[in-house]
Amino acid sequence: MPSGTPSRRRGRPARRDAPDGPGARERILEAARAEFAERGYDRTSIRGVARKAGVDPALVHHYFGSKERVFETSIEKPFEPVMRVPDLLAQGRDGMGERLARHFLGVWENPATRAPVLALMRSALTNETAAALLRGFVTRRLLERVAGDLDVPEPELRIQLAVAQLLGVAVLRYVIKVEPLAGVDAEEVVAQVAPVLQRHLTGA
Amino acid sequence: MPSGTPSRRRGRPARRDAPDGPGARERILEAARAEFAERGYDRTSIRGVARKAGVDPALVHHYFGSKERVFETSIEKPFEPVMRVPDLLAQGRDGMGERLARHFLGVWENPATRAPVLALMRSALTNETAAALLRGFVTRRLLERVAGDLDVPEPELRIQLAVAQLLGVAVLRYVIKVEPLAGVDAEEVVAQVAPVLQRHLTGA
């Protein structure tokens, strides 16, 4: 780039270009995800989110109304991978556990997709309101949709036990980083976990 | 109690009786667990712990030297139930998964034993130093002890996968409180989880 040309990050509107323009809503959500991740739910404020997004706090209120609603909307993006679970289940019983294990490990292996999920988990583990919002989201967006796809008794309980296995692996492997689990190849984890998920989802 | 008699809590030295007496070390650890639970690792300070314990900060330094060491020592008590895992494994392969599941559910079902474990988990999930201290503790105190008791390949990895299942159940059932998992009887959870733990620990 010749010197003197103003630099501009690719693929992202310059922060001050149009503070209340069409990019503002997504910029606010991005700032909110960063703030919730960094400071936790309790210490994140609408004012802080607005400052980080380079907009007036009134604009955050205009779009979302409350901190709860900012949080709830900001978790939609980290939840995108979870939204693909119904498709994975709909591909049939055979290999269901393996597809689910490989999908989740893929999300967690990639730092870019891991960060927002981890931030969300931290908020939910340290604040009751965040936990309640996540609970509502999981119930409405995931459990109610997939329960009909599993032809077993208590499908929702079974999905939760499978998710519990994956969640625990994520905590020990990527957060606490305990060896050997943190260091083994992702495919070995898939191989160990897939039969357990299959058992939870379709029975022994 | 006749009026005029000074009240005194049973089984616990009165706070100001002997601030640096033999009860002081345990009182500091109790204050530390409360502070880590309430404020998280980052925002807990030796000064704050000392204030809560009713002692001089110098006494905390005298006993523990650093915040890291206060944390590491304070997690010994919430870890007591985990310390019983080697005994549960040593009772033989048959029913190993069920014993482990029932033991852990028992710890989490009781609010008194749940609180310190949950506090520890919150610190480890939100702070790298706390995660590293917990990792070292788990490795030295648990994994190195039990690995020899399991006559399977990769015993440490298998224990971690079993613990992952239990940890995930704890998060969904007791922290996020997602239904139906949060509401079913503990014995139903034991019944669902025991075969999975057995599989992890002793093979298919």
Summarize the SSE layout with pairings:
2 copies of one chain form a homodimer.
Chain A: H1 24-39, H2 46-53, H3 57-64, H4 67-74, H5 80-83, H6 85-90, H7 96-109, H8 111-126, H9 128-146, H10 155-175, H11 186-202
Question: How would you describe the overall organization of this protein?
Answer:
2 copies of one chain form a homodimer. With 204 residues, chain A is an all-alpha fold. Chain A has 2 domains: 50 residues, Homeodomain-like (Arc Repressor Mutant, subunit A), CATH 1.10.10.60; 123 residues, Tetracycline Repressor, domain 2. Helices cover 67% and strands 0% of the residues of chain A. Chain A is built from 11 helices and no strands. In chain A, helix 1 packs across helix 8 and helix 8 crosses helix 9. Chain A is globular and about 55 Å long. In chain A, 39% of the residues are buried. Chains A and B meet through helix 8, helix 9, helix 10 and helix 11 of A and helix 8, helix 9, helix 10 and helix 11 of B. Chains A, B: InterPro entries: Homeodomain-like_sf, HTH-type_TetR-like_transc_reg, HTH_TetR, Tet_transcr_reg_TetR-rel_C_sf, TetR_C_16. Chains A, B: This is TetR/AcrR family transcriptional regulator. Chains A, B: It comes from Streptomyces zingiberis.
